[in-house]
Design goal:
alpha+beta; six-stranded antiparallel beta sheet; two-stranded antiparallel sheet; 9 helices; 8 strands; 28% helix; elongated
């Protein structure tokens, strides 16, 4: 490992979490490979210009996550290979019809209003008077990869079979039970660190990079029938898009929609 600048204390993230994040990134991207010996505490402290306790805490966190192992007298080694995205995970994220995703419903409320930040860009005279709120965890191959908070118009939700939200993605149910009314999907993707709630829900460390998706589906009248907030673990996220080149050139809004007011 080459010498790198010391982690800084920006964004209120402690140095050992920053150092653990750097090492985690190197493992995930194959810069550090399974079986490779890591520097000693003293060596790593010198490379990153941090205290020895900072390195011990970072190593302790990565050991808890199963990414490294250490034995007295032998040293510290990378124990986990670089994570890879499987075809099943690609489908679980990108395909509303994905059938091997398990859903854990954490909370469900009825007759709620659509929060103002999610209602931006909607027609002022919304015909949907209330929404059903669903918070759930998406699990694939036994591993949680997404937490979703979804609002779906109550009159549309009532068309779904009982318990359907525990078996399918809501976007799939919209297609099955209200497809003729849906006109447009708009989504915005940003990146942010995980807070403690997300870290606990998705089994990752505090400040782990997260992909944050805001998605809205509106009907032919411009009314929002569905709005969702999605948080994906950064190491288990990929967004795939494919459309004709000519369409992209002729209608750039496919890739870069107009900013909602």
């Amino acid at each position: 490992m080459t010498a790198r600048p010391a982690p800084h204390s920006g964004a209120g993230v402690t140095q050992y979490l920053q150092l653990a994040s750097i090492l985690r990134h190197q493992i995930a991207h194959g810069e550090l490979v399974s079986g490779q010996r890591l520097p000693t505490v003293l060596q790593l402290a010198g490379q990153y210009k941090v205290a020895g306790i900072t390195v011990r805490q970072a190593y302790g966190l990565l050991k808890t996550e199963g990414l490294i192992t250490s034995d007295r007298g032998r040293g510290t080694y990378v124990s986990a290979p670089a994570a890879s995205m499987t075809a099943n995970m690609h489908a679980a994220i990108n395909d509303p019809r994905a059938s091997d995703v398990r859903f854990e419903v954490l909370e469900q409320r009825y007759g709620v209003n659509l929060p103002e930040p999610l209602s931006r860009g909607a027609a002022a005279d919304s015909s949907y008077k209330s929404y059903t709120f669903i918070r759930k965890i998406h699990v694939q191959d036994g591993e949680p990869f997404c937490m979703a908070e979804i609002y779906v118009a109550s009159e549309i939700y009532q068309r779904f079979p009982e318990g359907a939200e525990q078996q399918h993605k809501i976007a799939y149910l919209l297609n099955e039970y209200s497809k003729s009314r849906m006109l447009k999907m708009q989504q915005t993707l940003t990146v942010a660190p995980a807070d403690m709630v997300l870290a606990q829900a998705l089994g990752c460390s505090f400040a782990t990079p997260m992909a944050h998706m805001v998605r809205r589906i509106s009907d032919a009248s411009g009314h929002i029938a569905y709005a969702g907030l999605f948080w994906y673990r950064g190491d288990r996220f990929v967004l795939e898009s494919e459309y004709p080149f000519e369409l992209w050139l002729s209608y750039p809004g496919v890739a870069v929609p107009q900013t909602l007011g």
